[in-house]
TrEMBL record:
<dbReference type="InterPro" id="IPR012939">
    <property type="entry name" value="Glyco_hydro_92"/>
</dbReference>
<dbReference type="InterPro" id="IPR050883">
    <property type="entry name" value="PNGase"/>
</dbReference>
<dbReference type="Pfam" id="PF17678">
    <property type="entry name" value="Glyco_hydro_92N"/>
</dbReference>
<dbReference type="GO" id="GO:0000224">
    <property type="term" value="F:peptide-N4-(N-acetyl-beta-glucosaminyl)asparagine amidase activity"/>
</dbReference>
<dbReference type="InterPro" id="IPR014718">
    <property type="entry name" value="GH-type_carb-bd"/>
</dbReference>
<feature type="domain" description="Glycosyl hydrolase family 92 N-terminal">
    <location>
        <begin position="59"/>
        <end position="332"/>
    </location>
</feature>
<dbReference type="GO" id="GO:0006516">
    <property type="term" value="P:glycoprotein catabolic process"/>
</dbReference>
<protein>
    <recommendedName>
        <fullName>Glycoside hydrolase family 92 protein</fullName>
    </recommendedName>
</protein>
<dbReference type="GO" id="GO:0030246">
    <property type="term" value="F:carbohydrate binding"/>
</dbReference>
<dbReference type="GO" id="GO:0005634">
    <property type="term" value="C:nucleus"/>
</dbReference>
<dbReference type="Pfam" id="PF07971">
    <property type="entry name" value="Glyco_hydro_92"/>
</dbReference>
<feature type="domain" description="Glycosyl hydrolase family 92">
    <location>
        <begin position="338"/>
        <end position="401"/>
    </location>
</feature>
<dbReference type="GO" id="GO:0005829">
    <property type="term" value="C:cytosol"/>
</dbReference>
<dbReference type="InterPro" id="IPR041371">
    <property type="entry name" value="GH92_N"/>
</dbReference>
Length: 411
């Protein structure tokens, strides 16, 4: 990075350095603008004695360490609060991405997952559980919806990834935008469906909820329940973490995860919904109105069977001509009921995306303001310092009230 910035002839942002790295997925211009604006605000605020806290979160570039190369950083650039248990971001498939993400534009997205680790590495990775994927269905035919990973995976559009502490977004090659922001054990996810994409497919907005797939493909059974009246999906399962004993004989080394996803808010309603099951060999079953499933570990070839829920939405919010679907998402290591309580407590009934995002940024600024650099510090040094300091507060995950040690093993 230092060599790159010197070549530009001036101290600059990490986003500008990404031009040298050749990244084709990060929105360099957007990140460049955000970071440059943050530097201007910081130096202006430093001249104002009444300002007691600076917006150092604006100096952080979460994409440092995400380049796809032979010495990867294995870092997570998605949404999280300091030490957040909920770490929401995209999960790629057909590539090496132990934290779910890397900047390889040819690596397809399989979903937006709820829990991740950052920096741990390992070949299989960890987390990436309870993923959500926006899809369109030809002719709005529920039975033609792409649900399995092989059917629904899609690459990202060029130069559309953007992130800052507490927020992440990307746009898929079908012009559907994915956004997320989080609290400690919950988050909001927002999906904006391009009106041309919906019109071309003659489809309502659909979301696929993946019950069984994680990054290391280690799911070993669980249950899913769909309450159509409440518009609530509750899922649980058992997985391996990134390190530790990984053989099937040592089930005590698995962790159990639980999720609670609320679908109804404002004018947003369910048009059609059900459960699905499939595999990479072509099995594809959809059961409209199905409310419950209980599966044990069932391998098809070398992969567990794939299953989850599928929902189409009516009366989605309008952003211009586009349709926007928002869901509230809670996670837990104790129970699905606890996951629901976490979402209700931490997100509340308003589902205010901007408010959650602002609260997350405020928590980051509280941490980052513990060390105040001189406003005469160069952009390069300040950006590297606060981006590194940010990483130091991503892990470990704060599982207070969620991990009943010492009788259980959890991530």
């Amino acid at each position: 990075i230092r060599k790159t910035t010197k070549k530009h002839g001036t101290a600059t942002t990490a986003a500008r350095a990404l031009r040298k790295w050749g990244s084709r997925v990060v929105d360099v211009d957007r990140m460049d603008g955000l970071l440059d604006d943050a530097f201007k605000r910081w130096r202006a605020d430093a001249q104002n004695a009444s300002v007691t806290q600076f917006d150092y979160a604006g100096l952080v570039n979460p994409f440092i360490g995400t380049e796809a190369n032979n010495n990867p950083g294995n870092v997570f650039p998605g949404a999280s609060i300091p030490f957040g248990m909920a770490k929401m971001g995209i999960d790629l498939t057909d590539t090496y991405a132990p934290a779910g993400y890397q900047d390889d534009i040819n690596a397809p997205v399989r979903s937006l997952g709820a829990i991740h680790d950052s920096g741990t590495g390992s070949g299989d990775g960890s987390g990436g559980i309870f993923g959500v994927m926006p899809v369109v269905c030809p002719g709005d035919d529920f039975y033609k919806c792409p649900t399995t990973v092989e059917a629904r995976k899609i690459t990202r559009a060029k130069n559309k990834d953007a992130a800052y502490p507490g927020y992440f977004t990307t746009t898929l090659n079908n012009s559907i935008t994915m956004e997320t922001t989080t609290t400690r054990r919950a988050g909001l996810q927002r999906y904006t469906f391009d009106h041309k994409t919906l019109a071309s497919a003659k489809s309502l907005p659909h979301l696929v909820f993946d019950w069984t797939r994680d990054n290391p493909s280690s799911w070993a059974g669980g249950t899913i329940d769909f309450d159509y009246q409440k518009g609530r999906i509750m899922m649980n399962g058992s997985w391996y973490s990134s390190f530790g004993v990984r053989t099937q004989e040592y089930e005590a080394n698995r962790y159990k995860g639980f999720s609670c996803i609320d679908l109804l808010h404002g004018s947003q309603t369910i048009a059609k919904a059900g459960l699905w099951a499939g595999d990479r060999f072509g099995q594809d079953t959809k059961l409209i109105g199905q409310t419950h499933a209980n599966l044990s570990q069932n391998f098809i070839g070398s992969d567990p069977i794939q299953s989850g829920a599928l929902v189409s939405f009516a009366n989605a919010a309008k952003v211009g001509c586009d349709s926007q679907v928002t869901i509230r998402y809670g996670v837990s290591y104790v129970s699905a009921a606890q996951a629901c309580a976490n979402a209700e407590e931490e997100i509340g009934p308003n589902w205010d995306f901007a408010a959650v995002e602002a609260a997350s940024r405020s928590q980051w600024n509280e941490k980052l303001n513990r060390i105040v650099l001189s406003p005469n510090t160069t952009d390069e040094v300040a950006r590297l310092f606060y981006s590194s300091m940010y990483r130091s507060f991503l892990s470990p995950n704060n599982a207070t009230l969620e991990a009943p040690f010492p009788t259980k093993t959890y991530v």
